[in-house]
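ok so i was messing around last nite and threw this chain in just to see what happens. nothing serious, just curious
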Amino acid sequence: MYKVVGLWGSPKPSDIESFEKHYLEVHVPLARKVPHLRKLVLTRAESGLEGSAPPFHRVAELHFDNPEAFHRATETAQWRAMREDGGVLAERFGVTIQAVIGWERE
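result:
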């Protein structure tokens, strides 16, 4: 699978509940509508290794069949809506979003 991995920074502790509500009720449904998306895997970090603070609050994996399917997805209104909402999350909650793209290998 070809995938995009989004790494979400942590909101302030006082914003976690509001961030989670928006993320799960608005952002994730937008992501699920992206054409050519084969699988969406969501992780909320509980801790880092050996009890350290996690470097990210959430990790999202968007799986596509190949680079072509991913690129077709990025040209759609659904992708743009999801990306715009990512900007809303960043602005409203002060979180960062980093992303990497590549092949999943076993």
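not much to say yet. The longest helix spans residues 16-32.
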